[in-house]
Specification:
The chain is of the alpha+beta class. 25% of the residues lie in helices and 27% in strands. The radius of gyration is 21 Å and the shape is globular.
């Protein structure tokens, strides 16, 4: 099923809502993916063709900016349609956070059949949008002048990103959302251009973002795989289904998860573990070509456990931290179910497999997610998490890709197994 973002653009949709396709759908999925690329290459991309991104049909062999970084930047905000005004949201203020939370809850991302809709918690939004170095003027909203109601939203957060061998200051773009009743107003392009202007004023001219659909032009792409944990619930809500001749009893047995991690010495990461864990993860990420080069403070912010937001563990052996395991949490509202209100999903985050190998690390993550009460663990086919490994661990292939994009930076295509960046 093709994911849709309930706003004017499908851009900056971080986590496509997907369900496990039935057995035998792989060839159909490949054909759909091929057609999506072909259609995107044929279509006119009125907005994106005006931006510093490669064209769909362009072959890129070199690296560098597409637009000069030394340029005149407009000082005044872009004009909005009559009746709307810009607002810088104070996300540590409960009232303003509630307005952003409600806009995203009701208008952000749902699946094509309107069965699931993301429901980011307020704590998650603060965690994702307020890392070290965050700026209030990069939490950008559009309000109705008469009512004060928040109708549009986008965020940028600072990051040092390495592309192949080049490290540069960028922003990560997230949470682009426009109220579903205002799609005809074309507020999404204006939000993108205004956040770009604000970022440019600080001397930053590149960005990284992900999109569930194909627009000009992906630098890479990966696919979500799903490890069923609460089998009966996922069948009840339609997230997955029983194949031919499969009974619920057999299905639950097939996806039964161990109570204890496969590695000894697994425990929750503590603040005292941060220096050692940071070093392990940083060294591991040197193997990849698109990477967030985190400072230790950024690492601590992103990975120290916060209930219902992020969960991190270390593997300790003889008093030393040998490996790191982490995942973050996003719930989805189940629409129209009398039995279940939410699906609680864990998303594979940053790991450092150490001497144990990535297979055992992901296997441990499944058990840890189950013990924290999650219904499913999702993982992208990035880093060493390839399709064969995930399939061997009883992950099922999702039905769509997550595409990675760079703004104002061109480079050759990066294979998914060289992606070392996870955008929350």
């Amino acid at each position: 099923r093709v994911t849709q973002c309930v706003c004017e653009f499908t851009t900056f949709c971080r986590h496509p809502l997907q369900r496990n396709p039935t057995m035998g759908d792989e060839e159909i999925r490949k054909q759909i993916e091929k057609l999506q690329w072909e259609d995107a290459a044929k279509e006119e991309h009125r907005f994106w063709d005006s931006q510093p991104v490669p064209k769909m049909t362009e072959q890129v062999d070199s690296e560098g900016p597409l637009e000069p970084t030394e340029k005149q930047v407009r000082k005044e905000p872009l004009r909005l349609p009559e009746g709307f005004e810009w607002v810088d949201l104070t996300l540590d203020d409960d009232e303003e956070m509630t307005s952003a939370y409600e806009l995203l809850r009701d208008n952000y991302v749902e699946d094509d059949d309107a069965m699931f809709r993301f429901n980011y918690s307020k704590e998650f939004l603060r965690w994702a949008a307020m890392p070290p170095g965050w700026r209030k003027d990069w939490h950008l909203g559009v309000r109705a002048q008469k009512t004060g109601k928040l109708l549009g939203f986008i965020t940028a957060v600072p990051a040092t990103v390495r592309v192949f061998d080049k490290s540069m200051k960028m922003v990560e773009i997230n949470f682009l959302c426009v109220h579903k009743k205002l799609r005809a107003k074309r507020l999404a392009p204006v939000l993108i251009m205004e956040i770009t202007r604000r970022v440019n004023l600080t001397g930053v001219f590149q960005a990284v973002y992900t999109v569930g659909s194909v627009v000009p032009r992906p630098v890479s792409g990966a696919r979500y795989y799903h490890r069923t944990i609460n089998a009966r619930k996922l069948v009840d809500v339609g997230f997955t289904g029983l194949g031919p001749r499969m009974t619920m009893q057999r299905f639950e047995k097939l996806y039964r998860v161990a109570d204890k991690p496969c590695l000894d010495g697994v425990r929750q990461m503590k603040e005292a573990d941060v220096p050692a864990a940071y070093k392990l993860v940083s060294e591991y990420l040197k193997n990849f070509s698109l990477v967030h080069e985190m400072t230790q403070d950024e690492f601590a912010h992103l990975l120290l456990s916060r209930k219902d937001v992020v969960y991190s563990y270390v593997v300790e052996e003889e008093g030393a931290v040998k490996a790191v395991i982490s995942f973050y949490a996003i719930s989805s509202t189940v629409i129209g179910s009398a039995k279940h209100s939410h699906v609680h999903a864990a998303y594979s985050f940053y790991h450092a497999p150490g001497p144990y190998g990535i297979r055992k690390i992901i296997d441990c993550a499944v058990t840890l997610a189950k013990n924290e009460g999650f219904d499913v663990l999702n993982a992208l086919t990035i880093m060493e998490q390839d399709a064969d490994l995930l399939t061997d661990l009883k992950f099922g292939a999702g039905d769509g890709n997550l595409n990675y994009y760079l703004y104002n930076w061109q480079c050759p295509v990066i294979p998914s197994n060289k992606l070392g960046l996870v955008l929350t």
